[in-house]
Amino acid sequence: MFGGSGAYNVHADFQNGGQLVKGDQVEVGGRPIGSITKVSLTPDGLARVDMKLDEFAPLHQGTTATIRAPSLSGIANRYVSLQLGPDSAPKIADGGAIGADRTTTIVDLDQLFNTLDPSTLASLQKIVKGSATQYAGRAAQANLAAKYFNPTLSTSSQLVREIIGDKVTFQRFVSDTSRTVSAIAQRQGDLASLVGNADQTAAAIGDENVALGQALGLLPTSLRKANTTFVNLRATLDDLDPLVRESKPATKRLAPFLAALRPLVHDAQPTIRDLSNLIRTPGPNNDLIELTGKMPRLESLASQVFPRSITALQKTQPVVEYIRPYTPDLAGWFTKFGESAATYDANGHYARIQPLFNAFSLTQTPGGEALTFTGATDRLAGLQTRRNQRCPGGAMQPTPDGSAPYKETPATSCDPSASPQP
Fold it and tell me: Model's pTM, two decimal places?
């Protein structure tokens, strides 16, 4: 009646007016409760926004104000969102103020773009152009994909509700994620290398996009064929269950075995390294791989030489079998022949040769053993001739234990009686 108004007025100071204009809404929790009546500049360069509130009046200390935008499209479509302070806090009088320390200015896209260097801006432009190329001629498929966007959001909403319902687990997840991010930050150099290598990999894949397209075209057929294999594999895995069950007791002893095997593996490293060098070594004609490559030529030569060698060995075998038992006799001859010239005087080495003929024999007499003439008229009657089938050890008189002369087998072609008789 007297021109008064029951509305509640309050103003807030912002670092930036954020494109607010008179008439923009003031909201709490997404619900409009008032409007902006004036936007002005304070003496210290702040943007003062006067608001008229129709609800939730009066405000309390601790209330915060944030400039927000309902979408990225449009210019003068901003609004002020209030986060109400506790009711137990002192009230803000009509015409009072929300200080600059309790306000937050919106960040415009221009401000974000201004923070990017030319290289980053160029990369961002490539992403935008690449997205345009990606969707070129595929508008129908993109619209079909957008049809599933709403179910995706609703499912995400359900996921968020489940996460909020178990706050303890979510807090533990956040803390573990924080530690993970901290660990990654400590290895930022390695992460930068990973990103660089991933970029090179993506570039290489892009260069082979034709081959990649062909591979993707063949993939459905491969998957259909693999389906049969996977079905059969399921039955095979069922058959493997008894094997796994029976193997479990043995695996308990596997850990001590592997622990004992570790020193062996460690000590085997030089051997494995040498074996690797033996198999493959830089340079020509110095490893097993190159030797294997020359094996066909060796095989062609050996196919002619080896049969002849086998025939020669087969023919030599009887000779070797005949000579082998006479090895001690041959070794003894070399020994005694060397001793025959071992003596020496001032003129040098000399040898004594004394022929022995069996013209006498030892006979027992009352006075002892004595040499007795055999009675042969021919002085060479005691000389044994044509003794060309002596047995091994047959050059000496027969031993009492029968070890000489030695006849290897009954079929050995030698004459034990050809030995000198006592």
Answer: 0.32
Cα separation, 336 vs 330, in Å, equals 10
Sign for the CA dihedral angle at 122, 124, 129, 130 comes to: positive
Between the alpha carbon of residue 246 and those of residues 239, 251, 292, the distances in Å are 12, 10, 43
User: If you write DSSP's letter for every residue of 189-248 in order, what string do you get?
Assistant: HHHHHHHHHHHHHHHHHHHTHHHHHHHHHHHHHHHHHHHHHHHHHHHHHHHHHHHHHHHH
pLDDT band of residue 206 (cuts 50, 70, 90) is: confident
325-357: pLDDT as tens digits = 778 777 777 777 777 777 778 888 777 776 555
How confident is residue 292, by pLDDT bands cut at 50, 70 and 90? confident
Residues 25/76, Cβ–Cβ less than 8 Å: no
Query: Kind and range of the H or E element at 104?
Result: strand 103-104
Q: Which two tokens stand for residue 205?
A: 């894949």
